[in-house]
Amino acid sequence: MTVFKAFFKVLRKYKMSLIMYLVISLGIIYILSSFNTKGNASYYRVSQGIAVRDNDNSEISKGLIEYLSTINEIKNAEELTDEQITDMIYYTRISNSLIIPAGFGEAILNGEDASMLKIESTKNAGARMGYSVETEIDSYLNLLSGYLEGGFDMAEAEKLTMEALADNSSVNVIAEVKVEDDKLFTMFQMLPYGILTMLFSAVLPVILRFGTMLLKKRSDISSTPAYKRQISIALAAGLVSVFIVIALIALASVLAKEAFTGRWWLVVINVVTLSITVVMLLVAVSNLNMKPEVASAFTNVVGLSFSFLGGIFVPIEFLGSGAKVIGQFLPTYWYSEALTRIKADGGFNDILNCLLIQLLFGVMVMGVGLVAGRSIQKRTA
Amino acid sequence: MSETVVEVKNLVKRYKELIALDNFNMKIEKGEVFGLLGPNGSGKTTTINCILSLLDFDNGEIDVFGEKMTSQRYDLKKRIGIVMQDVAVFEELSVEENIDYFCGLYINDKNKRKQYVEEAINFVGLEEFKKFKPKKLSGGLLRRLNIACGIAHKPELIILDEPTVAVDPQSRNKILEGITELNKKGATIIYTSHYMEEVEQICTHILIMDKGKNVTEGSAEELKRSIKNTENIIVYIKNLNDEHVKAINAINHVYDVTYMSGRLEIKCAGGRHNISHVIDYFASNNLDYDRIYSELPTLNDVFLEITGKNLRDKE
Ligand SMILES: Nc1ncnc2c1ncn2[C@@H]1O[C@H](COP(=O)(O)OP(=O)(O)OP(=O)(O)O)[C@@H](O)[C@H]1O
Ligand SMILES: [Mg+2]
Q1: Which of A161, A381, B12, B263 would disulfide-bridge B59, Cβ 3.0–4.6 Å?
Q2: Which of B283, B282, B257 lies closest to B268, judged by CA?
Q3: The complex's ipTM?
């Protein structure tokens, strides 16, 4: 209890840096969100990339592809390997891969069920946008077969279908996204910077203080065992970290005016994962027997490099290719990537990899830190 | 019947090639103020660290309160108070908070601790500085804080490792008085220092060590009685030639004379009126001196006679 309480007493000294980095984080939010206001509340139609392999090559299949191309960007699947297509879906560069089977047009002309079912569509399971393409196909085929049944010839039926679909904006509602919603992502985009800087500038030096040689020796002589003191320190540091993370999430949610929606939960899971990773990094660094005074320098180095190379301040696309390669080794990069996927309507499965990579980073760094810490201890003993 | 509080037997501690403790022995009885005296680097701190199980040692045995001491013996540690050579306090915490922290490592009861902290603050005279951060304290006050942190939990055995290094005379006296007072209240004290005057002033038993080995031990009187040196006569005199120095050396009971930069030191073994014989010599040779006085031997003379060197380089 004594150690636990002392942790908070020592922490008081670092309250100014907590406030400072909170203010800086808010400043960054303000700057980031002022960039994004221009698209406010306007609607636009989402254009998806679609890979299509047409094994039918009938007039109906060609008509369908032509229709899809008026909304989406069609990529010829013949020029792509299966692996490339899988990758493209995974990285949400295309929403669907369609295979139109041979005999497809024939079947529709014969009055068979004119639906999506006949087309093999592969899509990213968690992504909503994959379904919008399928809806487009369904609408087209339904209308077309209706016109054909009504006695129109092929050319006329296609023309009428196209016209009807062009008029009927309701069909495309699913494919429209509100830009205003981006606020959630703008707010959460900068949280890693806040978490990193606040934990490293305030929690780290306190942990390091308890580990300084003389104080550690002095405490080792006491009748409180080392493991009890360490548990107290870990609990206190954990509590402070949890508090900081929750406070930042709450703040970002309030500013974004969004909480407890499906994607909010995904975003929060992402932040929590990153926080766990940062805490593991903290554990690693606190093992290195550094002076508490070094923590502030460390904060700036880690805070800035992780944020820039991880696409926190600047979108990943803006980074040079070299920076991007380095960035991929940082958890913040995968945090941003996960945010991008959530933004593109990705589900939990779409970001799972990003989460795991973040944790993997943490586990590895913590392992290295513990080993390095032990060898430092041996040398100084 | 006396009760042994600490017993160190044939302790050997090596730092790589350096033998810091070489079959060192030490026995401390309850109620003693035990002085561990030795020049810089003689192994005092190493001994303390071994007793506290802060260091592994290569050979030997250490018993504390009659039981084998290990780093897991928290029950024994609870009864020990330590004032380390280097001040170990939190710079972020105030005087009061620091004492409360270290006391809290031993005492869980909140009310009891509050009272103990209060008492410790009064004991070292830091009442006015309760809310001060360590950085704001002078060297002497900082040492006092270090002491308060070590003794607040009212230990039976208090180990002080050179608590007066770099301390102003006022704080030094306060510290020495305090140690005597703690001893009167029942605590056994181990006090290490290379200041022989301090050790002589407060210690009931003195052990002199050098290069990790026992040199000698006993009370200050016993130690001084054990050597042949009984009196030192110091004379401040200019331009004394070698002839005179030789002649003085030949005076009865004088066994060693050194003359350096105007200071003549005459060592005597036995004899009752040695100083008058010296004065007679100056008078009969028509020599003028600035100052002459006689001293009883010090612990330094004990050390000098046994090891052939001074405890401290002359300051
Ligand atoms: N960690 C260490 N590694 C190597 N040598 C050491 C270490 N600690 C102490 N020594 C050496 O061991 C010897 C005894 O040191 P120790 O600190 O015990 O002396 P001391 O009597 O306390 O001296 P002082 O009066 O300066 O405090 C010295 O020669 C010292 O250089
Ligand atoms: Mg020492």
Answers
A1: B12
A2: B257
A3: 0.86
